[in-house]
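in:
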């Protein structure tokens, strides 16, 4: 599977191949963009190309180095193996002393946010100081092959005080190593870290490209492929793993909350809806808030009178059109600001249900969502 098999973001692929071909490989790369666009996949491809025994700016996928590094492309079995080896009841000291490092080749390591336990993972896995210190030690070792590569998935889960440990590596970068940070947005990382990385932002793919990937990688019917591509908003990874029926129901549930809040009536039903959403453990809270964002984006375009908007929720177009006639741009902006505050509050252990209740009630009353209210609900 050479670079030519990677779908989308051709300019990023070309830039990486050019760096390998000229030997001017950056010491730190930052891949940003929504989940499911192939950031981790391309990072693994880069690690293969940087150590391929046959090619200089691509990888053969057949040599020993390519085959061993390719095992990182499916990290789940390695993750389960590492957690099982450390023990299900590992305490905090053990978690830091035995960091979760995925390594199938002597010169290539992948770090994933540590869920601590396999069967009862923590709610918010994060990269931990033990993992970063392990990278700090190993980065300066001479490679046995051509180049050491460290892939840090979920780099935005590092606590900022812990991230200072990683910053020391970037301030004095090893000449024979490349660190690849993966994050949804550069704004969730320390500016001092971002400034020391060569940044690449992954753009969503066109719907037709996502449908093509679904046709090759799934047995879905054409209508379902089209709907999955629309709901995934250009992310082939999300489209491939998506339960379309569940995704549609999540959007309908979020839309019901917005509709009840806009009507200013039926508080019992409104709070029943928010309670059901907050108690849902099958989907992360961030993903649930992401559903609100996509609905509110459509609603903002409708209330602002944008001509020929590109709907993100075409199956709910009629309901969104009706809701847009009941609210105005300022109401939508208040709703977006409230979701922003809930997203930030979730990282401070905000009570999810109370936070949703407060936002819904204030939208129903036509009041601004006060950020200070969220702080008192922790």
């Amino acid at each position: 599977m050479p670079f030519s098999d990677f779908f989308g973001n051709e300019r990023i692929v070309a830039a990486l191949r050019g760096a390998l071909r000229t030997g001017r490989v950056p010491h730190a790369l930052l891949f940003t963009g929504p989940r499911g666009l192939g950031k981790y996949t391309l990072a693994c491809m880069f690690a293969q190309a940087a150590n391929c025994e046959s090619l200089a700016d691509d990888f053969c996928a057949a040599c020993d180095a390519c085959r061993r590094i390719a095992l990182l492309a499916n990290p789940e079995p390695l993750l389960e193996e590492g957690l099982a080896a450390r023990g299900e009841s590992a305490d905090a000291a053990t978690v830091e002393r035995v960091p979760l490092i995925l390594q199938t080749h002597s010169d290539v390591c992948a770090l994933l946010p540590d869920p601590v336990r396999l069967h009862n993972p923590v709610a918010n896995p994060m990269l931990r100081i033990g993992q970063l210190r392990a990278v700090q030690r190993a980065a300066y070792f001479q490679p046995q092959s051509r180049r050491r590569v460290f892939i840090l998935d979920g780099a935005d889960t590092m606590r900022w005080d812990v991230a200072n440990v990683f910053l020391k590596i970037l301030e004095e970068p090893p000449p024979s190593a490349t660190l690849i940070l993966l994050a949804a947005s550069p704004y969730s990382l320390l500016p001092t870290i971002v400034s020391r990385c060569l940044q690449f932002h992954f753009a969503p793919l066109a719907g037709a490209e996502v449908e093509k990937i679904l046709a090759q990688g799934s047995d879905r019917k054409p209508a379902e492929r089209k709907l999955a591509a629309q709901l995934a908003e250009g992310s082939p990874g999300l489209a491939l793993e998506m339960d379309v029926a569940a995704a549609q129901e999540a959007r309908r549930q979020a839309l019901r909350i917005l509709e009840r809040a806009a009507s200013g009536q039926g508080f019992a039903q409104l709070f029943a809806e928010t309670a059901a959403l907050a108690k849902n453990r099958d989907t992360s809270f961030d993903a649930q808030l992401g559903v609100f964002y996509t609905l509110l984006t459509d609603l903002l375009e409708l209330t602002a009178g944008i001509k020929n908007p590109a709907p993100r929720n075409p199956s709910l177009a009629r309901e969104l059109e009706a809701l847009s006639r009941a609210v105005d741009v300022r109401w939508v902006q208040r709703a977006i600001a409230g979701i922003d505050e809930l997203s930030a509050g979730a990282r401070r252990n905000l009570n999810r249900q109370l936070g949703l209740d407060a936002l819904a009630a204030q939208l129903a009353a036509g009041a601004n969502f006060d950020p200070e209210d969220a702080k008192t609900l922790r």
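note: The two ends are 48 Å apart (CA to CA).
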